[in-house]
Amino acid sequence: MNFEQLRALLAVVDEGTFEAAADELGVSPSAVSQRIKALETSVGNVVVRRAVPCVPTQAGSVLLRMARQVALLEAETMEALGTGGPGQAILPLAVNADSLATWFLPVLDDAAAWGDTVVRLRVEDEAHTSDLLRSGDVVGAVTAAPQRVAGCSTEKLGAIRYQPVAAPRLCELHSSAVAGKRVVDWARMPVLRYGPKDDLQNRFLREHGIEVLPPSHHIPSSEAYLAAARAGLGWGLVPEVQMEGMVADGSLEILGPRDHRDVPLYWQVWKLGSPRIERLTASVRGAAEAIIALG
Amino acid sequence: MNFEQLRALLAVVDEGTFEAAADELGVSPSAVSQRIKALETSVGNVVVRRAVPCVPTQAGSVLLRMARQVALLEAETMEALGTGGPGQAILPLAVNADSLATWFLPVLDDAAAWGDTVVRLRVEDEAHTSDLLRSGDVVGAVTAAPQRVAGCSTEKLGAIRYQPVAAPRLCELHSSAVAGKRVVDWARMPVLRYGPKDDLQNRFLREHGIEVLPPSHHIPSSEAYLAAARAGLGWGLVPEVQMEGMVADGSLEILGPRDHRDVPLYWQVWKLGSPRIERLTASVRGAAEAIIALG
Q1: Who among B109, B222, B233 is closest to A231 (CB)?
Q2: Contact assignment for A218 to B123 by CB distance below 8 Å
Q3: Contact with chain B for residue A218, Cβ under 8 A
Q4: With a cut of 0.90, is the ipTM above it?
C-alpha cells in the first residue's frame, strides 16, 4: 500500500469514474486503474465496485477513511517541515440543506480566506449525514444525532427552529374562526415536503391527530421550498432564521405561535489533531451562533 | 392487475418504504405488501427490489410509467364525469438545480393557483433528467438533451447563459495585467464546482488549455454556489439570470466578457392529451421567457 494508491482510491470515489479521477490527478486513466489494482492486490480485497458512479466496497470504505486522514496529515506534515508540498488539503464535509441555505454560509466566507483548504460539501438530510462520516466519505458533518461516530468528537451546535407557515391567502382558504380563534384545517391544507425522506411535516400532522395526510408537494431545495410557501402552494415548516421580515411584511403567516419545532444539530468531526480541522470547527461553531442555543 | 395495486406500486417507489407508502395511502403496511405481491403474481415478475429506498425492477419501471399515466387519466376522467373522485393528481417533474433557483420559480406560483395538482420535484443534473423520464419516475423534465424520449414530446425552452465570475479580491490575486489587458491565471485560481458530476468548469478550463486542473471546491446548492463565488472561495460559472446587479454593485466580476457558456434546455413531457400536462407545459414555456432564446 502506498500514498499514490490511496490518492487514486480517493479520486475514484470522489469523482465517480476512473476517467474523472485521472483528470483530477493529472495522470492517465490506465495509471489510475493500475494503482487501484495494486492496492487491491496488497490488501487482498476488491476496494471499488466498478459502476457509474464507482462505489467503495466495505474494505474500500475502511481504506477510504484512512486515505483521507493520510492525505490531510501528509499536507500538514509537509507544511510543518517547510517543504511546501501539495499545499491544498481536501476537506469533504456533509451538511443538511437548510443549514447550507442559512447559518452555514459564513463558513464559506471564512474558507475563502484559508487558501490552503479545498471544501467539498455533500448535502444530505441531517438524519443521514453521520452515515457519510461513518463510511469515510466526509471528515466532518452537521448531524441530527448526538451518537458519536467512532474516532470522532461531537459537540452541540444549537437548533434550527422551524415555524409552520403559509401564505395568508392559503391560510384563509383552509382555516375558520371558532370562538374568535383561528382553527387550521390540517387535514385539507396542502403541505410542502422537501422530498420523500422529509418526515418533519408528517410527524407534525400526526401530532395534530391527522391520520390521512393531505396532498403533499415535494420541493427539494431550501430556497425553492420557501418560495413555494410564499406563493401559497402549501404550508411548510420553514427555518425561522430563513424567513426574517416575511411575517412582518405579510408574505407569510405563522399558523400556530406555539407550534414550532426545534431540530437540534451537532457537529461531528474526526479526532486527528489537525490545525485545519480545528480551524474549521471554530468556524462552524461561530456560524452556529446564529441559530438558537440548546439547553 | 388493478388500480389499487398500481397505486401501491407508485406509493412504494415515491415514498421509498412500505411503511411510508402505507401512510401516503392511508392503509396498513401489510395491505401495501399484499397489493404489491398480487401485482407481482399477475405480471409474473418481481416489481420492486426491497431495499432502502425501494427501487423498481425493470418490469417495475414499465409498470410505474403506466401507473402514473393511469392515475392521471383516472383523475381527469372522474372530473369530466363530474363524479369528483380523487381530485388531486400527482405530477412528478425533474428539473436541474440552476433552473429551480432561477427561471423555474414562477411555475410554482402558477401551481399554487391550480388546486387540483400535486407537484413533486426531483432535482437532477440536466444531463440526467431525461433518464428519470425514461424510467417512468417523472412525467415531465427540463433536460439538456433534445433527443426525444419515446412517448414524449420535446420543445426548446431557451438557454441559461453562464458567466465566468469571481469576487474582485480573488480576481486580483490570480490575474496580471499584460499590455494593459487582464490575463487570468486559470491554472491556479481555485474553481467552484456544483459537485463531481458538474463538468462545466472543467470543460471551460480545458478549452483554455489547462491540463492540470486547479483546486476545486464542491458546493452542491445553486444559492450557496453563488454565495461562495461572492465570498471569494473560487471562480465559477454562474447563471446570468441569477446574478442581476452583482456585477454593477462590484461584488462579482466577469472574468472574460466573451467567455460565457450557453446551456440549452428542452422541455420533455408525456404525450397524454391531459389538460393538467397542457397547463403545466404552458406555465413552463411562459417561465422560460426569462432565459435567453435559442436560435
Answers
A1: B109
A2: no
A3: yes
A4: no
Q: Over the stretch B190-224, which tens digit does the pLDDT of each residue have?
A: 999 999 888 899 999 999 999 888 999 999 999 99
- pLDDT classification of A10: cutoffs 50, 70, 90: very high
Within the 18-47 window of chain B, which residues sit less than 8 Å (CB to CB) from chain A? Answer: 20, 23-24, 26
Which CATH architecture is the domain B1-61 placed in?
Orthogonal Bundle (1.10)
pLDDT the model gives residue A81? 79
Answer whether A152's CB lies under 8 Å from A271's CB: yes
Flag whether residue A251 sits within 8 Å of chain B, measured between CB atoms. no
Give the right CATH number for B140-295 from 3.40.190.290, 3.40.50.720, 3.10.620.30, 3.30.1330.10. 3.40.190.290
> Which letter does DSSP use for residue A115 in this model?
-
* H/E stretch holding A223: helix A222-231
Rounded to 5 degrees, φ, ψ at B90 are -90, 125
Q: Counting one residue from A and one from B, how many pairs have CB atoms under 8 Å apart?
A: 124
B26/A213 touch (CB, cutoff 8 Å), yes or no: yes
**pLDDT tens by residue, A181-213:** 889 999 999 999 999 888 899 999 999 999 888
Residues of A within 8 A of B223 (CB-CB) are 101, 222-223
Q: Looking at the partner chain, which of A197, A223, A231 has a beta carbon nearest the beta carbon of B223? A: A223
CA distance B81 to B78: 5
- Residue A30 CA to residue B53 CA, distance in Å, equals 35
Q: Do A220 and B123 touch (CB under 8 A)?
A: yes
Backbone conformation region of residue B115, classed left if phi is above 0, alpha if psi is from -120 to 50, else beta: left
The CATH number given to A1-81 is 1.10.10.10
Using CB atoms, pick whichever of A53, A212, A227 lies closest to residue B105. Answer: A227
**Cα B65 to Cα B133: distance, rounded to the nearest angstrom:** 9
Interchain CB distance below 8 Å, A228 and B120: no
Out of 3.90.1150.10, 3.40.190.10, 1.10.760.10, 3.90.870.40, which CATH number does the structure's domain A161-262 have? Answer: 3.40.190.10
